[in-house]
Design a protein that fits this description.
580 residues; Ribosomal Protein S5, domain 2; alpha+beta; Heat Shock Protein 90; 32% helix; formyl-coa transferase, domain 3; binds adenosine-5'-diphosphate
Length: 580
Amino acid sequence: MGQIRLLSDVLASQVAAGEVVERPASVVKELVENSIDAGALRITVEFHRGGTRLIRVTDDGRGMDRSDALLSLERHATSKIRESADLTTISTLGFRGEALPSIASVSRFSLSTRHREETVGTSVEVSGGKIIEVKDSGEAPGTRIEVADLFFNVPARRKFLRGEQTEAAHLLQQIEILAVAHPEIAFTCRRDDREVFRLAASDDLAVRLRDLHGAGFLEKLVPVPCLHHQGIKVHGWIARPGEGRADRNLQMLFVNGRMIHSPILSLPLREACDGTLAKGLHPPAVLFFEMDPAAVDCNVHPAKREVRFRDPALLRSVALMAARSAWATAAPSLTNLPSSTPVTSPWKPSEFSHQQEFTPASPVPAYAAQPSAFPDASRVAESPSSPPSSVARFIGVLGIRYLLFEDEESLLLIEIRAARERVLYEQFVSRLRLGELESQHLLLPEVLEMSSADLAWIEAHRDLLYATGLVAEVFGGKSLKVDAIPAAASSLPVEEIVAGLVDDLRKITESPSLDSLPREALAASVSRLAAAGARISAGEAAAQMLLRELLSCELPYVTPGGRPTMNQISPGELKRRFTA
Ligand code: ADP
Ligand code: MG
């Protein structure tokens, strides 16, 4: 009994029309999604010459009987929706019934399929949209679709294809996305007759991520504990604090199983990194958001890459919560401690090989984790009230910027200003939770000339500035009268403080992603100024104190702006540097 119906004309026009087939990668997406919808447990994707010569997708799914096989090639033939009300409750990946006919109309196409309950299969040959042959075939249950010579009959489209390498890269990226979304399905991929990967089915996303990107990748991630908030569920993995890369290729955000690109989800993730990641870097993440299909409209983009949320603000806060809760439960790990490469160096682009990229990580001493495990605390703990002592031995100060410590045989370098910035930042964030930062009154108010744009912004954000400790008012239309400044930065010239705060905070208030300015931003700005103004004292006691304070921070390894605070050179690294 056939399962496919033709969509009514009315319904067909309600379905957004659009080109599904842009390039080989989009063909693969449509075919593999069909296999997933058909309940396949094993999917094989083969392609030749970047997919321009041939794409073959084989699955062990439900298969089709002859009438369905023929119907599947008619426009708007779909087994997945019957009437327009169904559009609000779509749970399958495909629903428009236009992929197969579109693909078949621009390629030499063949479909070979056998329904699980039938003994004989069907094969259909189509060329440029015309059915050439239909015959019985003796396939295993499941479906195999071959798409050869994509766009052979539409030279204008063919011209738009990029080189084979580029098309292959898009195609692999696409398969990777589908494979990440479905660890429970085994995937095999062959490129020009060579196996690219063979992924075993697993009920564990971590296994799939490891199989695709190597164990090194997984180490850079922390799990997002399963979160349930107002009808939205989220789970997955996100980069450890301080881990980022310049592109978003490793940021995969799925809504009801479909990967989407949406600033509503990606901006809050970036926002959650403020304070640990330099501008321009994004946290890799694989997150699955599940919600009532009626809460999201996925029929707004021809390739279904974009969606519209009924309650974007809710999604935004769930994304933010997901990142923060992952980090709250993940103690700063030792593997975070940079060796001689800074934490913020972008990751290598994703690769599909199994032999993974892996820069040999130097062994890292357990500074932050168990200070008490180190017996040699004799050189520290000058004051009885000091926190548990750190264990590194102070060597000295290099120039005016760095503190040098020794631990076992490795060398630890602390950048004084960056370390102060991190320490102050964390203090300020917690103080801002309770109220304002401390201010220091000026003996005489200071009057600053400022641009009218800056003055207007200051006028509009007085409360915000007040929270940092700055008390000031616009005066005579052209100047600002400053009565008090943030106490922590009081050694800097008033003008520098005001300019610094306005510069930092204005950018943030202008960003469309935020409803309100987070404390973190205020704290970051003041700590940067305060660290810049702080006097350097080079004594051992101060050095040990700074190290201890730094190590008791929640995220000791980077400044709020993402600069490393410390660098460690391991014995191995030292040895390498002295080897011929
Ligand atoms: P849609 O996925 O939007 O329904 P398609 O054009 O992609 O439209 O596919 C049309 C129909 O063909 C599907 O609804 C499904 O019933 C059937 N079909 C396509 N691919 C497969 C497959 N690999 N296995 C089983 N059925 C399939
Ligand atoms: Mg489909």
